[in-house]
Amino acid sequence: MKQVNTLLAPYQNTLKRNKYFLYYGTFEPRKNIIYIVRVFAELVSEGIVPHGMKLVLIGGKGWGNIKKQVLQFIAETAPNKIDNRFIVLNFLSDSYLASFIRNAYALVYPSLYEGFGLPVLEAMTLGTPVITSDSSSLPEVGGEAVSYVKAKNYRDLKKKMKYLVQHPEYAKRLKSRGLAQSKKFNWKSSANTVYNFLKTL
């Protein structure tokens, strides 16, 4: 966590291990990031999320003005209701990103469509529990090692995030399952899968 908090020092913010949810990737409509932000804000306002737990969002602005919408929502909501529970960062180097993934309570990745779902595999490899959607290639990557949400279902995402917060023992089981699931993949074959998908675009 020292590396993470050194990076956050200029932002006058700090994180504790297992005290934040994480999303990373490009900010664009298919990633469902607005759902993540609004669900987390509701869980905080309802007293479900423990004091000090935050949501970290990492990635470039992409298209569709999603990052702008996220920042606007935070600016309107954070001062009075959720006590600066959000941290929004741009893309990071691999070493910094790995530190954020490894120390997160869980990765939240309810994407509507993925060609492969590399963040899910990376999180499992680093021992981080994952909440992801049941669409496209994500079940193939996650197997039985992640918590699935129904794509485009706001209530289901809220239900699954709430359950994970309230059942840390389940988070530990997902961590163990994820590590086992990640061993079914090797980086060469994964890279080839991603490359072959990109060639079809």
Summary, kept brief:
Helix content is 50%, strand content 12%. The protein has 201 residues and is an alpha/beta fold. The protein has one domain: 3-Layer(aba) Sandwich (Rossmann fold), CATH 3.40.50.
**CATH homologous superfamily grouping:** Glycogen Phosphorylase B
Helical/strand content category: alpha/beta
- Overall geometry: globular
Strand order of the largest sheet: 3-2-1-4-5-6
Instruction: Count the DSSP helices.
Output: 9
CATH architecture: 3-Layer(aba) Sandwich
Whole-angstrom Rg: 16 Å
Low-confidence stretches: none
Could you explain the architecture of this structure?
It is a single chain. By secondary structure, the protein is α/β, with parallel strands linked by helices. It has 9 helices and 6 strands; from the N terminus they run H-E-H-E-H-E-H-E-H-E-H-E-H-H-H. It has one domain: Rossmann fold (3-Layer(aba) Sandwich), CATH 3.40.50. It has a 6-stranded parallel sheet with strand order 3-2-1-4-5-6, sandwiched between helices. Helix 6 (138-142) links the parallel strand 5 (130-133) and strand 6 (147-149). Helix 2 (33-45) packs parallel to helix 3, helix 2 (33-45) packs across helix 7 and helix 5 crosses helix 8 (168-182). The chain is globular, with a radius of gyration of 16 Å. The model has no long low-confidence stretch (mean pLDDT 89).
